[in-house]
Amino acid sequence: MGKREERARPDPARIGEIIAQYRDEKWPLIPVLQKIQDECGYVPPESIGSIAEAFDLFPSQVQGVISFYEHLYTVPRGKKIVRVCRGTACHVRGGKTVLKLVKQNLGVEEGQTTPDMEYTLETVACIGVCALAPNIVIGKETHGHMNPKKVSQLFARRRGEE
Ligand code: FES
């Protein structure tokens, strides 16, 4: 079974083991959620009850923590996160078109993941490199001065053109 398939079906026994590892920690909740996410790719919603019970919390408290921290997720995400900047500098230099083209290339809307679990598409307020606008980030790599041709080149392999 491949890694992605394993991620698609979180093992409740393994989640129980992770919870047990953190039982005696003073502040266990964030580390246990992070560890579960590292292994499963997200925090499976069905694990929230067990986590709450193990640490004497209400499920709503665990859910509240997950919602508070942007880096914790309760839905599976793609291997690569594509972030299109929708900040002002990027917007005025064609960011809207870049976003439209990225959506077309990936075949998903903002917040969605491609069916093969390769990419999740997000938008961000500002990546912090406005001088290179418009920008997108794929994984950890920033791509500046984006235009339709560059977007096309970035996703050419995905379209089977390389
Ligand atoms: S507005 Fe896009 S990088 Fe700042």
Structure in a nutshell:
The protein has 162 residues and is α+β, with helices and mostly antiparallel strands. It contains 7 helices and 4 strands, in the order αααααβαβββα. A 4-stranded mixed β-sheet has the order 2-1-3-4, with helices on one face.
List keywords for this structure.
single chain, 11% strand, disordered N terminus, 7 helices, 4-stranded mixed β-sheet, 4 strands, alpha+beta, binds FE2/S2 (inorganic) cluster, 162 residues
General description of the model:
Strand 3 (136-138) and strand 4 (141-143) form a beta hairpin. The chain is elongated, with a radius of gyration of 19 Å. The chain is of the alpha+beta class. A 4-stranded mixed sheet has the order 2-1-3-4, with helices on one face. The protein is built from 7 helices and 4 strands. The protein has helices spanning 3-8, 12-21, 29-40, 48-54, 59-68, 88-106, 148-154, and strands at 80-85, 119-124, 136-138, 141-143. FE2/S2 (inorganic) cluster binds at residues 85, 87-90, 126-130, 133, 135.
Could you outline the blueprint of secondary structure elements for this entry?
Layout: H1 3-8, H2 12-21, H3 29-40, H4 48-54, H5 59-68, E1 80-85, H6 88-106, E2 119-124, E3 136-138, E4 141-143, H7 148-154
Parallel strand pairs: 1-2
Antiparallel strand pairs: 1-3, 3-4
Helix pairs in contact: 4-5
The structure holds FE2/S2 (inorganic) cluster.
